[in-house]
């Protein structure tokens, strides 16, 4: 049995992406686990998305609904507040992470509790609610299997949907065995046995919890309802059993009406877990006498979202429904995993969301892409991620040396005569390598290329010479 | 300015120069092709999720096999309470009591064939949410007239103000190597009985 | 005789004259008159995608000046065609991109041919480049042209739709990740046992070729050169 070494402890979260990625690339087990898991889910997604003959029409509708939501955000947020309040919920507003955490902690204390059970939620990861609670002497227990694995390993999530995607079954067995406290003796690495261990571990806690914290996949303005999409039943447990439920919901999660679910609930499960429908979806509206929590709170969270909203091109990132399809198809994510991105939202969506949520802090992420476009192709809400990546690159700062080189290149390319002279000079200058046909080693920065690739040598005769000769 | 006012002001400012929203196209399907056997599709999807499917109300007994004490909503029709099990009506059962029964038997509000989804909305014969969550075995009766082909046909049948639970197979997880395994915190066994009744309303609760 | 303009791209201008020569050969074989405006340089893609919008805008304007008078502009590069079509409208408002055709688009959609009378008795595997496939939507057009080539033995490339890791300055800025992607592409290419690896973009082929030249595997070739071959 191996000691638990959390991946996040090895991959520097604050380092620039290329540096952190280099560390991740040097972890063969991590890469193997990621390639296996992303390969599995890619095939499943492609199969179930391909089953629907109206997949593209659904994507078009979803993209337009979300674009409409963004334009109508103030109106929809207020309508949601009004309807949810009328149904017995208490709606709070939080400008940033600190405010959301403070409201949540206060509500837990007011409920007389020191512990909460949690449904997997990206919003609470984003605001680091668990860490904040710990600092206040409150304990938050993750109940989603993958979140539980990450929490027990004292690691950080590396994927939006499956935060423990970087662990294989054997590593998970070891984590349970060493950290769970009540893992069954002789626990095997059979996924069913591991799921059973999680069931036993959490059962008492579910049945006795008094406060739960959740996020939401959708918030319906028309009715004031929240929707949580899940698989294991941990969500149902948290949303149903405690007396008090606190849901932290990003303002971009709003949908105008219930009927919109007929679009999004086809797209989301097929894009995320590759299922026709996820095992459990819960929809609740305020308080229901005799059924579920008697105190229902909703915290509407900004935390940078209105920054994103202000950018005409970048705002489409707010359409994201956190399905993770873009991570699963991304050749960069597949090789580096999520920790290298240094943000709670990794992968292609993270590369456009993180720099907009926290301006100035993730300027390296828009470059963590070859712009291959696989993300846009699978995105169920048609976020043109490559377009936003390029847009963000065009906003961000540039290193002086690069700026000079690019400027010089443009100055030459914008002048046809200079361009032709430069090409001729390159052909002459490369004479010594002509016989070999390629260059194997170059000084920096070209060494970044020749580290793994040979460089071709300009030809003796250019196309232009050939053309001129022919015209004669 | 309080948080609410400030966030709303930020939104309005962010949207000042925004281009208008596009028209929302609605070209997607809202129903399956006519002639498709929706019951067969539903059964196929449920079996794929590793739920067990039975036909006819008489099969409820088989679906409940092995269960001695079965929790039921108080308004569960009498004709569904078949077999030798003891039926325990939920008139405020405690969590411990719910945890101690062997199974729960309910009806549903609608079922969607194409995704194999059973929908509960706390209506007739469905009970509260904890009832269908805590017991490890859920037997749900679906009337033929409750089955629709498509999600778009099902949503209007649900009470939007009521708590809803959409169930597609037994509880499952894909969190280990993205491979789906059934059975975590929700009921690990799901039996679906497709009842003979074609229309409601149901017979009244047992006396 | 219909006249078309040839945009050879800066990469081919500097490094790969055989590709634009092949385009000329194929187009003339089909009866087109090919024009080569000598003032052409670069579409501006590297600048735009690296975040240098102003530089890219100037190059986009220059492209318009050079090619504005032509109804059809043919280029042997999926990514340069995609640049003109997708990004020029945002940079300069120019709609010239609609008249820029990647070679296979021009042959299949405009000229309406798939068999261009080529002969190439070799095993070839085909890598669908990302911008050509996804941004431009070339689909299987290059493959349809290749299938019609006499004597060719086309073999499938495993994980063909995976990016080779080039991505312009990505190959330098994220050299390690790019190299890891390249290693997988080279291994898949080598596993085919093909003599040649064909693609619709010499920038990607430079990258793959630069790797294959170390690890071994099929020789990179622009598919235009296969279409030009009658050997």
UniProtKB/TrEMBL annotation, chain A:
The keyword Electron transport applies. InterPro entries: 4Fe4S_Fe-S-bd, FTHF_cligase-like_sf, Helical_ferredxn, LUD_dom, LutB/LldF, LutB_C, NagB/RpiA_transferase-like. Residues 394-471 form the Lactate utilization protein B C-terminal domain. GO terms for biological process: lactate metabolic process. It holds the Pfam family Fer4_8. Residues 78-301 form the LUD domain. One of its GO terms (molecular function) is 4 iron, 4 sulfur cluster binding. Residues 317-383 form the 4Fe-4S ferredoxin-type domain. It comes from the Bacteria. Keywords: 4Fe-4S, Electron transport, Iron, Iron-sulfur, Metal-binding, Repeat, Transport. This is L-lactate dehydrogenase complex protein LldF.
Automatic annotation (TrEMBL), chain B:
InterPro entries: FTHF_cligase-like_sf, LUD_dom, NagB/RpiA_transferase-like. It comes from the Bacteria. Residues 88-194 form the LUD domain. This is L-lactate dehydrogenase complex protein LldG. It comes from Glycomyces sambucus.
TrEMBL record, chain C:
One of its GO terms (molecular function) is oxidoreductase activity. Residues 4-83, 124-208 form the Cysteine-rich domain. Pfam families: CCG (PF02754). Coiled coil: none annotated. One of its GO terms (cellular component) is cytosol. It comes from the Bacteria. InterPro entries: Cys_rich_dom (IPR004017). PANTHER family: LACTATE UTILIZATION PROTEIN A, UNCHARACTERIZED PROTEIN YKGE. This is L-lactate dehydrogenase complex protein LldE.
């Amino acid at each position: 049995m191996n000691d638990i070494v959390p991946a996040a402890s090895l991959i520097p979260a604050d380092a620039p992406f290329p540096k952190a990625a280099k560390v991740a690339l040097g972890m063969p087990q991590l890469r193997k686990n990621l390639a296996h898991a992303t390969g599995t889910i890619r095939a499943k997604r492609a199969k179930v998305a391909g089953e629907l003959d109206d997949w593209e029409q659904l994507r078009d509708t979803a993209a337009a609904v979300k674009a409409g939501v963004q334009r109508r955000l103030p109106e929809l947020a207020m309508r949601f507040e009004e309807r949810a309040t009328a149904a017995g919920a208490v709606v709070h507003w939080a400008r940033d992470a600190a405010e959301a955490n403070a409201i949540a902690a206060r509500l837990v204390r007011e409920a007389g509790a020191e512990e909460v059970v949690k449904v997997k939620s990206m919003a609470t990861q984003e605001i680091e609610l668990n860490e904040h609670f710990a600092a206040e002497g409150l304990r938050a227990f993750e109940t989603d299997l993958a979140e539980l694995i990450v929490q027990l390993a004292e690691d950080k999530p590396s994927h939006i949907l499956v935060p423990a995607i970087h662990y294989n079954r054997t590593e998970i067995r070891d984590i349970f065995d060493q950290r769970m406290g009540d893992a069954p003796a002789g626990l095997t690495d059979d996924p069913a046995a591991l799921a059973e261990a999680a069931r036993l571990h959490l059962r008492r806690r579910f049945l006795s919890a008094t406060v739960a914290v959740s996020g939401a996949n959708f918030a319906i303005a028309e009715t004031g309802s929240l929707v949580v999409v899940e698989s294991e039943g941990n969500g149902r447990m948290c949303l149903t059993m405690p007396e008090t439920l606190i849901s932290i919901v990003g303002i971009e999660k709003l949908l105008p009406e219930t009927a919109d679910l007929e679009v999004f609930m086809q797209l989301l499960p097929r894009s995320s877990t590759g299922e026709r429908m996820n095992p459990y979806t819960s929809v609740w509206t305020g308080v229901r006498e005799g059924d579920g929590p008697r105190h229902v709170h909703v915290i509407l969270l900004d935390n940078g979202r209105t920054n994103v909203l202000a950018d005409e091109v970048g705002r489409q990132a707010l359409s994201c429904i956190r399905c993770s399809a873009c991570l699963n198809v991304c050749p960069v994510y597949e090789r580096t995993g999520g920790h290298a991105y240094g943000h709670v939202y990794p992968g292609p969506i993270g590369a456009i969301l993180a720099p907009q949520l926290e301006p100035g802090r993730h300027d390296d992420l828009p470059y963590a892409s070859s712009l291959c476009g696989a993300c846009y192709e699978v995105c169920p809400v048609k976020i043109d991620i490559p377009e936003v990546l390029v847009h963000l690159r065009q906003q961000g700062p540039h290193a002086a040396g690069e700026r000079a080189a690019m400027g010089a290149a443009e100055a030459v390319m914008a002048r046809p005569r200079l361009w032709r002279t430069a090409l001729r000079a390159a052909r002459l200058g490369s004479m010594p390598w002509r016989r070999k046909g390629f260059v194997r080693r170059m000084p920096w920065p070209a060494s970044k290329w020749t580290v793994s690739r040979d460089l071709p040598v300009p030809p003796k005769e250019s196309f232009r010479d050939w053309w001129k000769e022919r015209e004669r | 300015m309080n948080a609410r006012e400030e966030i709303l002001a930020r939104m309005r400012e962010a949207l000042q120069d925004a281009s208008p929203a596009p028209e929302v196209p609605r070209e997607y399907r809202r129903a399956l092709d006519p002639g498709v056997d929706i019951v067969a599709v539903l059964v196929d999807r449920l079996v794929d999720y590793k739920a067990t499917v039975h036909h006819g109300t008489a099969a409820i007994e088989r679906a409940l096999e092995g269960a001695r004490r079965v929790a039921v909503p108080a308004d569960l029709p009498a004709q569904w309470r078949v077999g030798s099990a003891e039926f325990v009506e939920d008139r405020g059962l405690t969590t411990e009591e719910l945890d101690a029964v062997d199974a729960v038997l309910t009806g549903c509000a609608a079922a969607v064939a194409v995704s194999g989804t059973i929908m509960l909305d706390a209506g007739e014969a469905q009970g509260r949410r904890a009832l269908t969550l805590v017991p490890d075995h859920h037997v749900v009766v679906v009337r033929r007239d409750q089955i629709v082909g498509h999600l778009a046909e099902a949503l209007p049948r649900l009470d939007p103000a009521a708590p809803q639970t959409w169930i597609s197979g037994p509880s499952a997880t894909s969190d280990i190597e993205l491979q789906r395994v059934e059975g975590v915190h929700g009921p690990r066994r799901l039996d679906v009985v497709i009842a003979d009744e074609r229309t409601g309303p149901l017979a009244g609760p047992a006396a | 005789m219909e006249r078309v303009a040839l945009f050879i791209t800066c990469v081919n201008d500097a490094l790969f004259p055989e590709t634009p020569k092949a385009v000329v050969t194929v187009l003339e074989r089909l009866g087109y008159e090919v024009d080569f405006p000598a003032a052409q340089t670069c579409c501006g893609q590297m600048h735009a995608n690296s975040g240098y919008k102003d530089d890219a805008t100037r190059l986009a304007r220059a492209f318009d000046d050079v090619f504005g008078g032509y109804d059809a502009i043919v280029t042997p590069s999926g990514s340069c065609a995609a640049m003109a079509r997708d990004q020029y409208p945002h940079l300069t408002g120019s709609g010239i991109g609609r008249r820029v055709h990647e070679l296979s688009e021009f042959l299949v959609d405009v000229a309406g041919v798939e068999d261009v009378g080529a002969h190439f008795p070799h095993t070839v595997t085909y890598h669908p480049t990302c911008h050509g496939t996804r941004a431009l939507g070339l689909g299987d057009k290059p493959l349809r042209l290749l299938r019609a080539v006499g004597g060719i033995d086309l073999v499938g490339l495993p994980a063909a739709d995976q990016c080779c890791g080039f991505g312009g300055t990505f190959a330098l800025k994220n050299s390690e990740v790019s190299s890891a992607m390249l290693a997988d592409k080279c291994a898949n290419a080598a596993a085919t046992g093909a003599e040649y690896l064909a693609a619709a973009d010499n920038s990607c082929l430079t990258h793959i070729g630069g790797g294959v030249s170390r690890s071994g595997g099929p020789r990179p070739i622009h598919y235009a050169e296969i279409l030009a071959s009658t050997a």
